[in-house]
Amino acid sequence: MDSACVSQADTFPFGNGSVQIVNVPPLDPSLYSLTPDEAQFFKVATGINDDEMLKAHILMAQEKSLQGWLRLISYRSVVAPYPCIYVFTFLRVGITKLPVYQDILAIGRERPDAIFLDLGCCFSVDSRKVALDGFPAHRIISLDLKKEFPELSNFLFRTSKDTWAGHFIPGDVLDPEVLPVAPITRRGSKLGSPPDLSTLTSLNPLHGRCSVIYASCFLPLFTEEQQVHLGRALAGLLSPEQGSLICGMQISKKEKGSNPMVFGSSEYTVFCHSPQSWTELWDGTVFEKGEVEVKINVWEFSVHQSVDVMAWSVKRL
Question: What is the DSSP secondary structure assignment for residue 292, as one 8-state letter?
Fold first, then answer.
């Protein structure tokens, strides 16, 4: 791929609309890094034990994904500007940093009908990690905008649709045909026969059936009003069983509001909640007060700019 910097303006899909990108920087392999735990995971998951060979493979997956976006969206530019792919944050295996991670694995072990839903999955790295650690892969569903992500995930992890048992649904979460708001399922409700996960084309058949919903670096892409809407939609998917979880990681602020972000010579805006406003959204707005337990941890994170990140969980009581 030509590494020349993209100078003209283009737009790409982003949360509730699109973002104009100008002067996208060239791919920079020096940004590649893996912690010892991440390196061990990718070595086991890909079967590549040599560090340099693993790096070369991941760089190839990165380039392949960007070429894929170019083909799909028909950009004039040689590079599709997705920051998480450029700066390798898609490798971070963020789900393991959640305090509820062991709870997620326990749900997969102990509930025969457990379903793990990964929203905004990208390469499905977190889904692969959850499966490697014991959550049944055939009970994992990933969703993202573009139908080509399973191919990219299989390339990264050197699997195929025959050797990876997880499922993928392409779709826009703001499309009611994909994810409508449905009433929250209460304990004792009869759900009927479970759906065949391999035939799903939307999340509609999953109302009241998802044991774990993972939405990392995803919800701030939408406006405040849309985040309330999506919170209610996700609540409708959540199993009524005690301990069922909605969780993730995302940028936060001390006071909720718009947060400017910079990529290359371009700026875009995300809407960030504070820990307090995020708690109030779930405990009192989406769910009735006292129906759920919300826990949040915050720390500072820096790649191309410094931001506060919160790891959060919403647990059915």
Answer: E
Among candidates 120, 119, 125, which has minimal Cα distance to 157? 125
User: Which two three-digit tokens encode residue 253?
Assistant: 């602020």
Nearest in space to 197 (alpha carbons), one of 171, 160, 165, 174: 165
Strand stretches in 171-278, DSSP E: 212-215, 245-252, 257-263, 266-272
CB 195, CB 141: distance < 8 Å: no
**Using CA atoms, how far apart are residues 171 and 98, in angstroms rounded to an integer?**
26
Cα–Cα distance for residue pair 85/66, rounded to 1 Å: 8
Taking Cα atoms as reference points, which of 145, 144, 296, 278 lies closest to residue 224? Answer: 278
Query: Which residues are registered as beta bridge partners of 20?
Result: 11
Q: Which tens digit of pLDDT belongs to each residue from 161-194?
A: 999 999 999 999 999 999 999 999 998 888 888 9
CB atoms within 10 A of CB 76: 9
Give CA–CA dist 83/77, Å, rounded: 15
Size (the chain), residues: 317
- Whether the CB-CB separation of 231 and 253 falls below 8 Å is answered with no
- Reported as a single tens digit per residue, the pLDDT across 18-55 is 455 555 567 789 999 999 999 999 999 999 999 999 99
- What does the pLDDT look like over 112-146, one tens digit per residue? 999 999 999 989 999 999 999 999 999 999 999 88
Alpha carbons 285 and 248: distance in angstroms, whole number: 18
Helix, strand, coil percentages in the chain from 3-state DSSP, rounded to 5: 35, 25, 40
Q: Cα separation of 95 and 310, whole Å?
A: 12
Residue 264: is its pLDDT beyond 70? Answer: no
